[in-house]
Amino acid sequence: MRWLFMLLLVLNIGYFAWHRHEAPLMAKDVTPVSLYKGGQEEIRLIREAGAGRAVRKRDECLVVGGLQSEEQLQSLRQRLISLDISTESLAYRLPGEAGYWLQVDAQSERLLDQPVLTSLSKDFKDLKHKIILCGGVASAG
Question: Which pTM does this prediction carry?
Fold first, then answer.
């Protein structure tokens, strides 16, 4: 009986040592993520960047138009000039779009906001606005 007791005692001590060896260590100190960021900015939504303005790439331009005649286009151009918005006529057609278009200069884009576009669309029935690549993807014609 003594031998059985000694055997169980040795087995328990061995099991305890083995179990202790596999047990997870104490929790490590976790470093906050903010320390790893360094000089990086936080993630922001697109609508939060620039007070609600859409963020555009440098090679994208705003165009307005879609008008059916050059007379309407010239009238739109005069109206935009009166609002201090400088434009230039596009020498090519927009892919998949009919009509005549004006490209708004980059410095004037901030002046052509949604309320101005809404008031212009009341006067020019077919007026549309798009953001396209500035280089002119379509061929002349």
Answer: 0.53
